[in-house]
Amino acid sequence: MFIENIYLLYFRNFEKIELDFSHKYNFIIGDNAQGKTNILEGLYFSAKGKTFKQNKDRELIHFDHENAYLKTAANTEGIREKIEVKLSKDKKKIIRINEEPIDTLKELRSFFDIIVFTPDEFSIIKNGKSYRRDFLDEVISMISGYRNTLRNYKRLLEHRNHLMKKGKSSRYFREQLRAITIDFVKAGAIILHLRGEYVKRLEYYARKFHGILSEEEETLTLEYDSSVLYRGTIMEIQKDFYNKLMANQEKDLYTGFTSVGPHRDDLLIDINGHNTKAYASQGQQRTAILSLKLAQLKLFEQTKETSPVILLDDVFSELDEKRIKFLLKVLSPYQSMITAVNTDFLKNIKIKEGKIFQIEKGKLKDELCI
Question: Global pTM?
Answer without folding.
Answer: 0.91
